[in-house]
Structure formats: structure tokens, C-alpha cells
Design a protein that fits this description.
It catalyses: salicylate + NADH + O2 + H(+) = 2,3-dihydroxybenzoate + NAD(+) + H2O. With about 350 residues, the chain is α+β, with helices and mostly antiparallel strands. The protein has helices spanning about 50-60, 75-90, 90-95, 135, 150-175, 180-185, 255-260, 315-320, and strands at about 40, 65-70, 105-110, 125-130, 190-195, 210, 220-225, 230-235, 235-240, 250, 270, 280-285, 295, 310-315. It has one domain (about 30-335): Jelly Rolls, CATH 2.60.120.330. The protein is built from eight helices and 14 strands. It has an eight-stranded mixed β-sheet. Strands 6-11-8-9 form a four-stranded antiparallel β-sheet, with no helix packed on it. A two-stranded antiparallel ribbon has the order 13-14. It binds N-oxalylglycine and nickel (II) ion.
């Protein structure tokens, strides 16, 4: 039987051929820097001006930061991680009922990134859910584990609020009205990728996710507290984002890069895998509503540069993104530049 998913209970002693990257594209793990961390920002601080400043600096320099005292109850984050692990531990026959390679499906279990477009596969299984509005999508979510829907619903609500708070900070840090981004993005969509990266026999030869940028507005990542794997590109070098206790990792997606007229960066990042331990992450993506018109904020185009990107709808962007392979070397936003 072709089980398709990696989390099938089969242990591989060598990496199957279709996962092996050509020599020039391998992760070169020994060259990854461990000595610098992306900023950890205390959202519980009463010094709002300082927090806004820290977020602005992080968005410019790293496109990434971590937040602590973020207001999401720690118990809810912990339960989310646990139920995600339980899901991937289910028997493969049970999981395969949810399997699909079709990116247009609003609920699916899949593997790698885009099986129909890519030439080399990635050492990842993922469950992809739409999460807003909840009453529309929860009915199609997995009902096994039996606590899944309840826990994930609670988690999604909290993470959405956290995302909105951060969007306010981001607007202010660009010198815009607090509600600027929220207003442009409209009634935001929310998607989730529950990523499961099984232990991998040869992590030097492959990726969990190869370098990519996120096509949405803002990503809120719950990392495995015990196993590292996320790396971000800074000044041409890969930097490990090691788990920080009780923190979320936040990153700017392509839409905030466009809206900020390129001042904030949707940075390349990747997930690498480990030889002895599986790793789990839960990525929540806040997305503009489909018809949202994305174009650089006017006040940010008046310093002589003009608008770097043309206006487009999010629907147009998203379609373009999924028509490509993740390892296309060019940033998808390059295709939307004014010339
Ligand atoms: C993603 C992503 C990183 C990780 O899902 O877009 O970048 O650490 N995940 O799993
Ligand atoms: Ni990503």
C-alpha cells in the first residue's frame, strides 16, 4: 500500500531517493549560527512605546521575533501541542481518510509541500485547516482525537486576538493609525498548518520545509518546546530560532512586506529535521480577506521611492503563490513589483 504520509510507523534507515536534495541545495547544518537569537519581546510590558519600537526594529532587521507574556493562556498552548501530537500518532488508516494533495481543500492532511508541483519532496506531514469563521469550518475538522475540535477552537480564538494586538503594534511602528492594517485586511481569514516532522535518517540531505516566505499577512508559530528546527535567513546566513520557553514566534508575511512598501521584510525561513526526534509546530496564518486590495500604505511611499509594489487583490496573490513550487528561488512578491 502506498501510504503517502511519513507518519505511518515505518522507520527508514536511509533517506528515500525522492527526498534527497542535490548537493548545492542541502542545508549545511554545521554552518548554521546558534549564537544570535531573534529578539524576544515582552508584550506584558507597560512601556508600549518601547514595545512598538522593539517590534518595528525586529520587523526591519529579522522579519521575525518571539513574544512572551502574550496573553494566550499557557495551558491552551500546551493542550494544542499535545492534541497535535496525538493526531499524528493515530493509525495511518485513520489519518489517510483525511489525505489530499489538493491545495484548494479547506481541510486536509497532506505531506511535503505541494506534491503535484515539486520535484524533490520534504520530510514533513501536515494537517491544514481553515479556522475562520469557526462555525463554518469546525464541523469538517478531525473528530479524532475526540478533544481536537474543542481544544483547537479555543486555541484559534486566542491566537487571533494575539495576532490583532500585534497588528496594532505593527501599524503604530510604521507611524500609521493603530487600526490601519486591520482596516486594510478586512475580515481576516485564518488558516492553520499543524506540521509534523518525523525523525529523519539523514537530516543533512533534506528539509522539513525548504526556504520560503509566508504568503499571508502575519504568522504566529507555536514551536515544539523541546526540539529545534526553525531557521531564518539573516544577512545571507541561516540562523537557528531555538525554542524559548512559553514564547510564540511571530513573522511578517508577504502582505505586510507589500503594505509597508518593503520596509518590513517577509524573510526566508526553513525547517530542518532531526535524526532522533520528531518535531511538531503549529503555524497560524492571518490572511487578508480575498478581495482586500493590497498596496503600499500611502504615507510610506512619499519619501521619494514611490510604491514599490503594484496594487493587487489577495486572491490574485494567493493563486500565484500556490501555482509555484516552494523552492522557486525568487520571492513571489517580485512578480508584483512596479517597474
Ligand atoms: C510554515 C513554517 C516553520 C516550522 O509552516 O510556514 O514556516 O518551524 N513552519 O515548522
Ligand atoms: Ni513559513
Amino acid at each position: 500500500m502506498n501510504t503517502k504520509v511519513l507518519s505511518s510507523g515505518i522507520r527508514y534507515s536511509t533517506l528515500p531517493e525522492s527526498y534527497i536534495r542535490p548537493e548545492s541545495e542541502r542545508p549545511r547544518l554545521s554552518e548554521v549560527s546558534e549564537c544570535e537569537n531573534v529578539p524576544v519581546i515582552d508584550l506584558g510590558s507597560h512601556n508600549r512605546i518601547q514595545v512598538v519600537q522593539q517590534i518595528g526594529d525586529a520587523c526591519k532587521c529579522y522579519g521575525f521575533f518571539q513574544v512572551i507574556n502574550h496573553g494566550v493562556p499557557l495551558g491552551i498552548a500546551k493542550e494544542m501541542g499535545e492534541v497535535a501530537y496525538e493526531f499524528f500518532k493515530l493509525p495511518v488508516e485513520e489519518k489517510m481518510k483525511l489525505y489530499s494533495d489538493d491545495p484548494s481543500r479547506t481541510m486536509r492532511l497532506s505531506t511535503s509541500f505541494n506534491m503535484n508541483k515539486e520535484t524533490v519532496h520534504n520530510w514533513r506531514d501536515y494537517l491544514r485547516l481553515h479556522c475562520y469563521p469557526l462555525d463554518k469550518y469546525v464541523p469538517e475538522w478531525p473528530s479524532n482525537p475526540h478533544t481536537f475540535k474543542e481544544i483547537v477552537t479555543k486555541y484559534c480564538k486566542e491566537v487571533r486576538e494575539l495576532g490583532f494586538r500585534i497588528q496594532e503594534h505593527i501599524s503604530e511602528s510604521l507611524g500609521l493609525e493603530k487600526d490601519y492594517m486591520k482596516n486594510v485586511l478586512g475580515e481576516q481569514g485564518q488558516h492553520m498548518a499543524v506540521n509534523y516532522y518525523p525523525a529523519c535518517p539523514e537530516p543533512e540531505l533534506t528539509y522539513g520545509l525548504p526556504g520560503h516566505t509566508d504568503p499571508n499577512a502575519l504568522t504566529i508559530l507555536l514551536q515544539d518546546q523541546n526540539v529545534a528546527g526553525l531557521q531564518v535567513l539573516k544577512d545571507g546566513k541561516w540562523l537557528a530560532v531555538n525554542p524559548y520557553p512559553d514564547a510564540f514566534v511571530i513573522n511578517i508575511g508577504d502582505q505586510f512586506q507589500a503594505l509597508s512598501n518593503g520596509i518590513y521584510k517577509s524573510v526566508w525561513h526553513r525547517a530542518v529535521v532531526n535524526v532522533d526526534k520528531p518535531r511538531l509546530s503549529v503555524a497560524s496564518f492571518l490572511c487578508p480577506y480575498d478581495e482586500a486590495l493590497i498596496s503600499p500604505a500611502k504615507p510610506l511611499t512619499e519619501n521619494g521611492t514611490g510604491a514599490i509594489y503594484r496594487g493587487y487583490t489577495y486572491a490574485e496573490y494567493y493563486k500565484k503563490f500556490w501555482s509555484r513550487d516552494l523552492v522557486d528561488k525568487e520571492h513571489c512578491l517580485e512578480l508584483f513589483k512596479n517597474n
